[in-house]
Amino acid sequence: MAPFELAEPGSLPDALALLDAEGARALSGGTALMLMMKAGVLRPKRLVSLRKLGLEGIDTGPAGELRIGGMTTLRALEKSELVKRHWPVLARALRTLSNVRVRNVATVGGNLAHADPHMDLPPLLCALGASVGLASREGVRNIPVEQLGTGYLETSLRHAELITILEVPPLGRRRAAYLKCTTRSADDWPALGVAVVSDFQQDVRIFVSAATDKPTRLKGAEAVLKGKEITPSLIREAADAALAEVHIESDMHGSADYKKQLLRVYLGRAIHEARSAVH
Fold first, then answer.
1. Distance between CA atoms of 82 and 60, rounded to whole angstroms?
2. By the number of CB atoms within 10 A of the CB, which of 85, 167, 221, 278 ranks highest?
3. Are 90 and 170 in contact (CB under 8 A)?
4. Is 169 helix (H, G, I), strand (E, B) or coil?
5. Cα end-to-end distance, the chain, whole Å
6. Residue 140 CB burial class (10 angstroms; 0-12, 13-18, ≥19)
7. Among 130, 68, 122, 119, which Cα is nearest to 97's?
């Protein structure tokens, strides 16, 4: 590993100032960053630790939205009674996200900023209509999580910009499910992930991941399902629409043809699981 400077600022303005330099990178949980540095993929000159900025916490906002600080660990989110009660799909998804040792350290902001298309949270958060608050020396802006990932390990984050907060709208009458297929253990990287959030009337949002280079919305499949009674033939029609609108990628977890078949199977399973989910 190449030598680097470690900075531990005590305030957000100080952290943003330290990041506004060539070769500087933010350090949150470090579970992915350190592996990439050891492999020589990344060689930052300065790491700026975010652990003293007070960006942890889980609560609700004035409109009933779930508000999660960017430095909140995945384990804290998984164990939160608030999340279990009102957004149970998140708690369920987190149980098979990597292993508990990683979840104890990895953070929400770091998870989203890493932008590996095999991650479990991004497609589910996209389907839930979540957004992130981004801070830089120029100010604060908010964007949907759907707009955060732009490609494999690529995001729309600007130079020296940090994810400070994640907001998830209340589920209301909607029901949600996230399913993934792994080629090894249940907590492994998925070969395919499917997230479905719907009221099974007019509101339906479906995202696929791992088989694409970023979480990808299946608008054609949504259009097929919207306002109609769910039947086996309708699900097959939705799967046909999904496969017609996305480019499926081959990787070490499976060929494109294999993942196309997975999408057909797991789209139907995710729809049925969402329908049976408890509010």
1. 9
2. 221
3. no
4. coil
5. 48
6. exposed
7. 119
Q: Which amino acid is at 266?
A: Y
CB 175 within 8 A of CB 277: yes
- The pLDDT tens digits of the residues spanning 6-60 come to 999 999 999 999 999 999 999 999 999 999 999 999 999 999 999 999 999 999 9
H-only helix segments in the chain: 12-19, 33-38, 74-79, 81-86, 88-94, 100-103, 108-114, 121-128, 219-225, 232-245, 256-276
Where do we find the tokens 């608030």? 82
DSSP symbol at 6: E
Tokens representing 10?
């005590």
The third-level CATH classification (topology) of the domain covering 58-168 is 3.30.465
Produce one character per residue of 160-177: b if its CB has 16 or more CB atoms within 10 Å, e if not.
Answer: bbbbbbbbbbebeebbbb
Residue whose token pair is 């995202």: 207
**43 φ, ψ (degrees, to nearest 5):** -135, 70
Q: What are phi and psi of 71, to 5 degrees?
A: -95, 10
Give the pTM.
Answer: 0.95
What distance in Å separates the CA atoms of residue 201 and residue 46, rounded to the nearest whole number?
A: 51
Share of the chain above pLDDT 90, in %: 94
Cα separation, 213 vs 182, whole angstroms: 17
Residue 147 DSSP class: G
88 Cβ neighbours under 8 A, 6+ residues apart = 277, 278
Classify domain 175-276 by CATH number: 3.30.390.50
Task: Give which of 119, 121, 101, 133 is closest to 29, Cα–Cα.
Answer: 101
Taken in order 115, 117, 118, 120, the sign of the CA dihedral is positive
Q: How confident is the model at residue 140 (pLDDT cuts 50, 70, 90)?
A: very high
